[in-house]
């Protein structure tokens, strides 16, 4: 429990509530619709990370500046500044998330999670049915609120922006998204393997609860780690460590 002290209780409670909300959609919830929700959450996380990059004010270390120059593709964006970091982050976010979404809904879902209808019918099956659409929209809004609460109470309220540089904030997002979505690939393999032997877990309520639980644990772990910021990382911190 000591790891959760790095975040405010309000942010932890809102994170847990937003992650558990899909359980209220009903027994007809499909894994594909749940994966669509988590893919949309990637954009929400990216939006708040952009706000954090804009607000982060700790100095960058020489190592971070070198990494940023590599990210800029040898001067594609001139200078290492908050504005240039924001631009490259937006470009990478659209590219990586777009490619991931195309692979997720263009290959993984129609190949592993659905087996009825034409290819495009299987692709469209990621959309929840009409009776679950309200719950789906409420879940999106709840995730927006949860990440917003964390931004206000942790990043602003606890003044984390003073202890992290724009470059470090940009790189920090990767660990959280990898942890959030790694189970997607593993889960697809499990569902596909069981379906091949005649056992359909794709619409089983137990499978849904299992995925939500795994995602919740990954979210809590990466959320707590993200907010365990003790001191600035940059030239000033490096000079202090040499004393």
Describe the structure.
The chain crosses the membrane at residues 36-53, 88-113, 133-156, 177-194, 200-218. The protein is mainly alpha-helical and 243 residues long. It has one domain (2-123, 137-242). It has nine helices and no strands. Helix 1 packs antiparallel against helix 6 and helix 2 (31-55) runs antiparallel to helix 7. The radius of gyration is 20 Å and the shape is globular. Mean pLDDT is 79; it is low at 230-243.
Give a summary of the structure in a few sentences:
InterPro entries: DUF6498. This protein has 243 residues and is mainly α.
Shape: globular
Q: Main sheet, how many strands, which sense, barrel?
A: none
Q: Work out the number of β strands.
A: 0
Please give the share of residues in helix.
over 70%
Number of helices: 9
Structural class by secondary-structure content = mainly alpha
Summarize model confidence as the mean pLDDT: 79
Count of the separate structural domains: 1
Q: SSE string, helix = H, strand = E?
A: HHHHHHHHH
Work out the strand percent.
under 5%
Cα-atom Rg, whole angstroms? 20 Å
Distance between the termini: 34 Å
Q: Low-confidence parts, pLDDT < 50 over ≥5 residues?
A: 230-243
Record the SSE blueprint.
Elements: H1 9-20, H2 31-55, H3 62-71, H4 82-113, H5 119-124, H6 130-156, H7 166-196, H8 205-226, H9 235-242
Descriptive key words:
9 helices; disordered C terminus; single chain; mainly alpha; 243 residues
């Amino acid at each position: 429990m000591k790891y959760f002290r790095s975040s405010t209780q309000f942010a932890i409670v809102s994170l847990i509530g937003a992650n558990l909300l899909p359980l209220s959609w009903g027994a007809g919830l499909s894994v594909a619709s749940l994966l669509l929700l988590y893919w949309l959450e990637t954009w929400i996380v990216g939006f708040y990370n952009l706000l954090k990059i804009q607000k982060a004010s700790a100095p960058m270390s020489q190592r971070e500046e070198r990494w940023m120059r590599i990210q800029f593709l040898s001067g594609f964006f001139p200078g290492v500044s908050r504005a240039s970091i924001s631009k490259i982050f937006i470009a990478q976010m659209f590219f990586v998330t777009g490619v991931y979404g195309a692979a997720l809904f263009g290959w993984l879902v129609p190949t592993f999670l659905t087996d009825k209808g034409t290819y495009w019918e299987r692709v469209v099956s990621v959309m929840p049915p009409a009776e679950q659409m309200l719950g789906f929209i409420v879940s999106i809004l709840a995730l927006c609120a949860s990440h917003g609460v964390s931004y206000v109470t942790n990043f602003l309220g606890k003044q984390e922006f003073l202890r992290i540089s724009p470059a470090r904030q940009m790189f920090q997002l990767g660990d959280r998204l990898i942890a959030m979505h790694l189970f997607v690939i593993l889960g697809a393999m499990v569902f596909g393997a069981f379906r091949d032997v005649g056992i359909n877990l794709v619409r089983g309520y137990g499978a849904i609860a299992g995925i939500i639980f795994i995602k919740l644990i990954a979210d809590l772990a990466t959320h707590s780690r993200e907010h365990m910021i003790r001191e600035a990382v940059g030239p000033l911190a490096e000079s202090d460590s040499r004393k």
